[in-house]
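Late entry, written up from scratch paper. The run itself happened at the end of the previous shift, but nothing got recorded in the book at the time, so transcribing now.
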Amino acid sequence: MNSQQYCLLLCLLFFAQASAEIHYHDFVVRATPVNTHTIITVNGQFPGPTIEVRNGDTLVVNVADGPEFVTQCPINPGGNYTYRFTIEGQKGTLWWHAHSSWLRATVYGALIIYPKPGSSYPFPKPKREAPIILGEWWNANPIDVVNEATRTGTAPNNSDAYTINGQPGDLYNCSSQDTVIIPVNPGETNLYRVINTAMNNELFVSIAGHRMTVVATDASYTKPFTTPVLMLGPGQTTDILFTGCSAQPGGSTGQPMLPLLPAFNDTFAATAFAAGIRSLTQVQLPDPVDEDLFFTVGLGLLDCEMGRTCGGPNGTRFAASMNNASFVFPSTLSILQAYRSGMSDVFTDDIPRAPPVQFDYTGANVPRELWQPMQGSKGLKLKYGFFAHIVLQGTNIVVGENHPIHLHGHDFYILAEGFGNFDPATDKARFNMVDPSLRNIVAVPVNGWAVIRFKADNPGVWLMHCHLDVHITWGLAMVLIVEDGVEELETLEPPTS
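Output as recorded:
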């Protein structure tokens, strides 16, 4: 991909039902000069435009949806694509972003969903609202960064800065004139919509001298709970209420007080925050379910190809997988088109429903013969209306890591999380079947597990992947194919011309 050829896909996660108001947006994607290089922007903005709608509205975006070669082929240079969908049942904050290579490093923006007309927030109305979009910045072209890592088989370079609403903040030498300022008056309660758009980092968030009340995550209201720190994996959103102190922190020196943040690897702080998130009301979950699935998620290594020099351990290149299957994106045809056309040479629907080999997943000495996954474009089929129950088990192959697992096209309930190897004999007793959190990303703990449950009620081909982009680049992904139902709104529309 040269500097003039950019493939763009924007990931927008909604479901189609009846409409109320229709909102039209044109997204112009182009290279924009910034400092010493160019970045890819939408309408010349970084971050991109904020979209505001109400629950029940219809959104029409000229340039839109889908991970490349899964739900559609990428939009070619000079081309466009119009996607139309209705937002139904989602309330709070989501975001839109590119889903081709590492374009989402700069191609993203907030999507705010207000209650329907006549409805209100399930919490006191804030004085004002503001998005807080957390991101990363590379001094190099992010596409060059990932291409170099792919060429050498090693990990990509880290970003050069973190950003808030596109600006790097006071702690970087380059940014004294570019700090984001969000006004707040003493005693005033505001609603902040926090979004982690970072490519490869879970982020802790704190406000010096204050506590925050969480009221929504991933466009779903939660039981309010107060916390001094937030933890967001890439792609996650958290809505908070924040009340400014009558006397602002800083004292007579005039210097701002710095917030107290956990260490970047503070697993306890991350776990404690996740445990506080609960659905606003009681939910009804079927038990038993129609599909009981178990997926290992983790890293691996592949042999270096003949004639190449690779930078991974012992001359290998890094890989990642689910149930030992390392996902390879097609390059000529989308999986959805291949599935609807009955083609059998683009993907297979035979990913194992459980690990092909059982082992001590989080043990210190995983056998080396388990370090090398099989490559392919793999997924599995789910019947429309079936309830799926999935155990996501982290592994200690190469190294244990937190994996924010995201499912396109569906929200899911997080029943439980834990450490070590999931044990159905004892861990089922920990399932929250009353008010589990409803999300579209679950952060599988380091050397731990998470259990999710959802209804397959959105027909199509949906990517399930780690939202650390370095891991999806290495193959930590698969596709779930939800078959058509019977009624009109339970089936995919035929493809356009």
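The longest strand covers residues 291-302.
(Scratch paper discarded after transcription.)
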